[in-house]
Amino acid sequence: PLMLTIYRVTGATILCVIIGIPIGIWAAHSPRVAHVTKGVCDTLQTFPSFIYLIPVIMLFQTSDVSNVIAMLAYATVPAIRYTYLGLLRVPAATIDAAVASGATPWQRLRKVELPIAFPEMLLGINQTIMMALAMVAITALIGSRDLGQEIYKALPGADTGRGLLAGLGIAFIGITADRLIGAWAMQRKRQLGMA
Questions:
Q1: pLDDT tens-digit profile of 131-145?
Q2: How far is it between the farthest Cα atoms of the chain?
Q3: What is the number of H-type helices and E-type strands within the chain?
Q4: Cβ(95)–Cβ(108) under 8 Å?
Q5: Is 53 in contact with 70 (CB distance < 8 Å)?
Q6: 3-state secondary structure (DSSP) of residue 47
Q7: What are the backbone angles phi and psi of residue 112, rounded to the nearest 5°?
Q8: For helices 160-191 and 147-154, what crossing angle results, to 10°?
Q9: Nearest-angstrom CA–CA distance, 89 and 135
Q10: Of 140, 18, 133, 2, the residue nearest 80 (C-alpha)
Q11: CA torsion sign, 76 to 77 to 78 to 81?
């Protein structure tokens, strides 16, 4: 169950990043897109996590795919929001210097804006992992076979050992990811002279 949880959370996180970062970049460069995106993100974060299971069950029944899609709907928001905020916080003087040097918009994004915003984007990926892990216990209701299911099985019989072991497994994944990504973000900030 631990390995299945890691596999599922990793897959969901990769998909969240693939979807969320381009949307965050688009929103940072278009006020109209930013307005719509912020509204959608606020709405998605306001919904109780159980709500995401309803359309997933209707469309995909109970399967590994439905579990990942439920995680995806819940956990994409931080990837979008932190990318957007990271790009907005790039100093205007730095962007002006890139423009004055003759950089095209694509070169400016790739060589100036994204490297400076990267530490904040890493924090967004960290939050994405945490939100995907939070959904592990919820997706147990639609037949997952990971640590969430172990928690779900432990509830009716008050099986403290089983529930505690599954909870510690989820915490282990979260703490490990947090420490690794936090260290990487701090290293990047030092390299950029931001810390």
A1: 988 888 787 777 777
A2: 68
A3: 9, 0
A4: yes
A5: yes
A6: coil
A7: -120, -60
A8: 150
A9: 30
A10: 18
A11: positive
In this structure, which amino acid lies at residue 155? Answer: L
Residue 154 · residue 169 · CB < 8 Å: no
Instruction: Report pTM.
Output: 0.85
Dist. CA 162–CA 185, nearest whole Å: 35
At 94-116, the pLDDT tens digits run 888 888 888 888 989 888 899 99
b/e code 15-33 from CB counts within 10 Å (16+ = b): bbbeebbebbbebbeeeee
Residue with tokens 């639609």: 142
Per the CB < 8 A criterion, the answer to whether 124 and 81 are in contact is: yes
In the block, tokens 């979260």 appear at 174
Please compute, for residue 44, the number of CA atoms within 13 A of its CA located in the half-sphere on the CB side.
Answer: 19
Query: What's the one-letter identity of residue 52?
Result: Y
Q: Which two tokens stand for residue 99?
A: 């423009």
